[in-house]
Structures are given as structure tokens and as C-alpha cells.
Amino acid sequence: MKRRIYLDHAATTPLDKRVLKEMEPFFSERLGNAGSLHSFGQEAREAVEKAREDIAKAINAGQEEIYFTSGGTESDNIALQGVMKANREKGKGLVTSAFEHHAVLHTAQHLEKKGFDVNFLPVTKEGFVELSEVEKALHKETVLVSIMHANNEIGTVQPVKEIGEMCRERGVLFHSDAVQTVGKEKIDVQKMGIDLLSASAHKFYGPKGVGFLYKRAGVKAEPIAFGGGHEKGLRSGTENTPGIVGMASALKLAVKEMAEDNARERKLRNKLIDGCLEIKDGWLNGAREPRLACNAALGFDFVEGESMVLMLSDKGIAASTGSACSTKSLEPSHVLRAIGLPHVKCHGSLRFTLGRNTSAKDIDYVLQELPKIVQRLRKISPLGGK
Ligand SMILES: Cc1ncc(COP(=O)(O)O)c(C=O)c1O
Description:
By secondary structure, the chain is an alpha/beta fold. It is 38% helix and 13% strand. It folds into 2 domains: 5-12 and 258-379, Aspartate Aminotransferase, domain 1, CATH 3.90.1150.10; 17-253, Aspartate Aminotransferase, domain 2 (3-Layer(aba) Sandwich), CATH 3.40.640.10. The chain is built from 11 helices and 12 strands. The strands form 3 sheets. Strands 2-8-7-6-5-3-4 form a 7-stranded mixed β-sheet, sandwiched between helices. The protein has a 3-stranded antiparallel β-sheet with strand order 9-10-12. Helix 3 runs parallel beside helix 4. The two termini are 34 Å apart. It binds pyridoxal-5'-phosphate. Pyridoxal-5'-phosphate binds at residues 71-73, 76, 101, 103, 148, 152, 177, 179-180, 200, 211, 324-325.
């Protein structure tokens, strides 16, 4: 059988088999709607509330501060649109960064079109939002600051605690898109001064299509969709019981195994980066640390990222050119542009993201195949580099 190596865990992770086992009964015999009054419904409600408690504990929040959603995109939308609309009397100011995920970036652009005053902060070439930039952007009418915890393309971890403290001192709300860090980095919303936080289960070995929003008690937010008033009116729609149960189970496992997983992945990741940097005219996008343990965001001159991805795929290796969400677009990645990479270099980017099942053998195989692929592509490249 053809060898298949999955190195695109930032796009999505496989569902952990232990999690699947926990979810299974909720698809069939424990079928109730958590909104129903009968015993089937109550059983589902109990499972949903237990999951809420477990998730709250994992990030040091209160149970009543967790809202279930369909994933990271919806959580980001409720955080940005919901908070900006509900706090109009305070002002119209939203501060975010130029390299947020599109779920934040496009929502912020939409709000700007609707008359809100949005400030997109620059980032350093190492891939960080600077505290001084946040400070400069804050003004009397600033309602919300939204800065991601770790960047999904280049993996750099942002100084979220420092930003949170600054926001709290100034009486400004702080949201962090932590889709790439929940289950991978320690999160304590109290200590980190976070008022709202977005997460998505399929990034930490849970099911796809389910996520949560943490919203600190007392923070005002309007719903962005209307219906039966579920989740205290903030997110209407029947609760996805199997998904919610799976998300809580996956998060508990991820938190428990975090230190071990990260240590193993970081070691393999460093070996991969070092090996790739031996290829002539190759580079690492963003600083090496602080960076997610799983992330190796590389670039190679004179080759196209898409061609590398396709040729790697032919060898059974799954990688990405950057964000999974922008593969259909020929525009260079806004993240790479934000860190100041010239247009032509953006096209040569290649992202590997490791996971729990990645082995040393997998990395050896990539390091055996990639140099040959780069060399072959350079031979036929109109960009030069032969
Ligand atoms: C940082 C970040 N935010 C938001 C999302 C969107 O999450 P979801 O796929 O659950 O909608 C992603 C997914 O790639 C992400 O990486």
C-alpha cells in the first residue's frame, strides 16, 4: 500500500478513537434533543452541561461562560459582530491585526463597511503583534481588541497575556482567536485577561463542525442569528450533542497529554526545520520560538508552493501552502504579506504541521523526498534557481 503521511494538522486533526467511542451513543440510543422535557432530552441536556463544565475547567472559566457554536468561524463572528453591535453606546473602535484568520479579518472588514472604526495593526517580520502598536491604537472609543493566540499559517504565539493586561487596565474588551492553541498551549482566561475566546474541536482531535465561545460573565454581546433562543439567546439552534460531548472529551485528553505531545512534536519539528534549511535558498517564515510545537512554515525560492504540495501528495505526503482556507485563491497569503515577505517569495511557501501520530520515520521520509522535489521543480522553473 502507498505510504500516506499526514502533515496538515493545522487544517484539521483526525478524530481521536477514544473520543469517537464517547460520542457514539449520542448518535443512536441517547438520541434526545437537549431542549426536550422527557427523559431522552434530559439525558442529552446532562451530557451537554457536563461537557460545558469540563470545557470551562480546561480554560479556568465559569460553566455559564461557555457557549457552544458550530466552530471557530462562528465563534469569531459572534465575538466581533456581537460585541461591537451590543456596545455601540461606548464607541465604534475595533482593533485587530493584519494577519488574523479570515474568520476575524473578513468580519472586521465587514464591520468597517458598516461604519465601525477598525484598526488593522501591522506585525513584525518575525510574526508578532507588538504591545506598543496595540497601545498606540487604543482610544476613548475603542470597544474591543481582537488578537489571535497563535497564527494558523506561521504558528507564532502572540503575547496575549500582556495584551490582555493592557486592555483590562484601559477598560477595553479583549477577544482572542485561540483556534490553533486550545488543547496545545496552556490557557487560563483569568490570568491572561481574556474576555472572549474562540475555539474549534476539529483542531484538537475532536469532531468537525463544533466549537465554543468563552464570553466572560457581564460582557454584552448580541446574537448574530435568531431562532429558539438556545445558549442563553446568544446562539440559537439545537445543540450538537455528539459533537459537544466529543469536543469536551477531546479537550480533556489534549490538556492531559499536552506536555508530552508538545515535547515530542517540537523535537521532530526542529529536525524537520533543520533538514529543510539545508536545502539551498530555503527559509523559515516567522521566528522559530515562541511558535506552536507542531508548526514548520517554510519557504523555498524559485518554486511554487502549490507544485510542491502536489508533488509531495504524489509521494503520499500531505502538506499545505499556508492557510487551508485560502488554497482556492491565487492571491499571496495575507499572513506572509503582513510579515513583509516579498510577493514572489510568498508563492514559494510550504507549511508542515505535525500531530500526535507523526513519527521520526515520517520526518526522515519527508527529508528524503522534499530536496528532490525542490530540485526537479527548479529545473523547470521560469523563476530561475537551476
Ligand atoms: C486561527 C483560526 N481561526 C478560525 C478558524 C476557523 O475555524 P473553523 O474551521 O472551526 O470554522 C481556523 C481554521 O483554520 C483557524 O486556524
